[in-house]
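Subject: Interface between my chains keeps coming out wrong

I've been trying for a while to get a sensible model of this assembly. When I model each chain on its own everything looks fine, but I need the whole thing in one frame so I can look at the contacts. Pasting all components below, labels as-is. Any help appreciated, I'm running out of ideas.
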Amino acid sequence: MDLQYGLELVGTFVFAISGALAIREREHDMFGAGFTGFITAIGGGTLRDILLDSYPLVWVDDVWFLYAILVGVLAAFTFPKFLSELRRTFFLFDTLGIAFFTVLGVEKALNLGMRPEIAAIMGMFSAVMGGVIRDTLTNEIPILFRKEVYASACLAGAIVYLILNSYEVSRDINLLISIAVIIAIRMLSMKYKISLPRLD
Amino acid sequence: MDLQYGLELVGTFVFAISGALAIREREHDMFGAGFTGFITAIGGGTLRDILLDSYPLVWVDDVWFLYAILVGVLAAFTFPKFLSELRRTFFLFDTLGIAFFTVLGVEKALNLGMRPEIAAIMGMFSAVMGGVIRDTLTNEIPILFRKEVYASACLAGAIVYLILNSYEVSRDINLLISIAVIIAIRMLSMKYKISLPRLD
Amino acid sequence: MDLQYGLELVGTFVFAISGALAIREREHDMFGAGFTGFITAIGGGTLRDILLDSYPLVWVDDVWFLYAILVGVLAAFTFPKFLSELRRTFFLFDTLGIAFFTVLGVEKALNLGMRPEIAAIMGMFSAVMGGVIRDTLTNEIPILFRKEVYASACLAGAIVYLILNSYEVSRDINLLISIAVIIAIRMLSMKYKISLPRLD
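Reply #2:
Try treating it as a single job with all components included. I did that and got this:
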């Protein structure tokens, strides 16, 4: 449990950095960048918990998430160029982050007694809706509609988790497999420029 | 009650199709179209229930709504051209859908003990906010600000329902009249290109 | 308490006017302007209360807020030119409004047992998120990302309130000082065109 909590804080920190950096090229000041980092980091989990009526919200209840965000935003302020040059590293962290948050979101919904279909949606929302809200607020086309295999990788990983869970695979193994599935789908689709077919 | 439940599922199905098709011309892949269909179908009712603190949300509690959406999205994927050519038919269905969901939203708010003013707003939100959220996410000007007599037709129908309800008109007759009012206002305003005055 | 309630209604009324006028130059009809006034007036407090799970929402529970909005929207419809020419007066009112709603939001969160960090965020959200939601719906760049010292002035005032509160300064004096801080920061930054540094 301690490891998981630590990973959640690290994931929140990474999301805050990528959120703050996402608007770096645009006409935003430091406050706007910090606000964007905050929204990116908490948006997905907050939406999930509002939909599930699960209160208090994680970051409202546990102030360490706020400090993880604050440190992430300050890092983005202090080393913007350095962090932007780490784009490839960040892609890895971001992929790890969405994979991890997807599975945690699925587990939270299951623990609240939700059906698997709902848990799959909540897992995906946890991972991607922070970025969607950020993009909507900053008038970007949301990431969901740009990077073809992004939210769908999360949804696929969520479904894998739920299938293995129904066969009573142990939690640790299930976590590893379903996180690996999300990472593999996203990496391979980036490498080979695979995208889902368009509707036409 | 069974008829009403069936109509709710059909309405959800139709909203999912129109949501998925709404972004057909744009650069979205199948996942984006499905996501948009989902948001369009559940957005209005979800916002209403969050504002009223009415949990669990309808689609979280009853998984058949998810399947109605899934079938709608798959239909949009499978027959996009055929369905798009049915534009006039869809306009009819969409008008029927917003009229029906407006009145159901009003009734739900009244059943939760809300005042009529709040019930009118909640009825209108049920019908139109799914489309507003969809348009906001996809960077369109929301339908509310484009089609002049759209949300205002719903609000008018909601008010008619509330007035008749206060005179204790029977529910079936009231439903028919207030749904007919919404349909008539929208149809006539389209036919004669009537719009509300602008502010200037 | 009566004075505070009156000020809340007046603040809501002013926010509704400025929301309705904000889209005056654009292609919106009267319904869209009214809707925008409504969202501007209730958006921030509604988001705060959803995040804090504080139900019923203020405007759902007390219908006088709806009427304050309605009167504000009707005023914007009836005297749009006159009110637009009062831009400088409105700037004063808007600044007073965000200062006042910030402090009330902080107090509400504290009364619900929240930590000061959360109360500061909730105070800022109460004041600025109505405008952010309005701008997002109407495809504008949110005010938060445009006017540099806007939300940050609110956050500064919230922090001042919390510091003085922790030293048990009496509520009336604290209200006056923290509201004055917000107004002073915003006024001075406008007058001397001060803005926060950008991230680059």
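Reply #3:
Confirming on my end. The two ends of chain C are 47 Å apart (CA to CA).
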